[in-house]
Amino acid sequence: MGRLVLLRHGESQWNLENRFTGWVDVPLSQRGMQEAKNAGDKLRGFTFDRAFTSVLVRANETLRIVLEAIGQTTIPIEKDKALNERMYGELQGLNKAETAKKYGDEQVKIWRRSFDVRPPGGESLKDTAERVLPYYARHIKPYVLKGETILIAAHGNSLRALVMELERLSREQVLELNIPTGAPLLYEFDQNGNVVSHRYL
After folding, report:
1. What is the CATH architecture assignment of 3-192?
2. Is 40 known to sit in a ligand binding site?
3. How many angstroms separate the CA atoms of 155 and 188, rounded?
């Protein structure tokens, strides 16, 4: 039985400051480092065959802290920008509350939570899914089908795109999906690659 653990990075400095982060390389906050350590504690019973992460430092640092905590620092790790956070374009670096005052709460909610509406100069969740899902199918799913245990450290929206696929969520359902920072989400698969269970650890 293949197992896949999805882990959104710990709180970043811009999460703390309530800013749109996107592809800007922002480090973990002190709380984010602790969240990563806590995730490591929850994953102590797992033996991972390999790990995947984005190229952004907050996901890389989360993965490093987790693997150190569970004593598995020598497993193969593949980094790829396909797993990067959604690119927020002109909103990157802006405070979310100030952006809502400028454009209106409803418009900002549409940019943040709709499936196929892009923020100015940025990506929609649909755009994000169009890079995440082919990468998953080519580079990660074959290992799951072999029965391996895989860890992905990535981001709120890249993981939302993947969860939408794994759980067969509708466009409407994915709008309300929120993946918390530092909370490992375990999926177990049968030999055909179908999800048989999923839960937060």
Report:
1. 3-Layer(aba) Sandwich (3.40)
2. no
3. 20
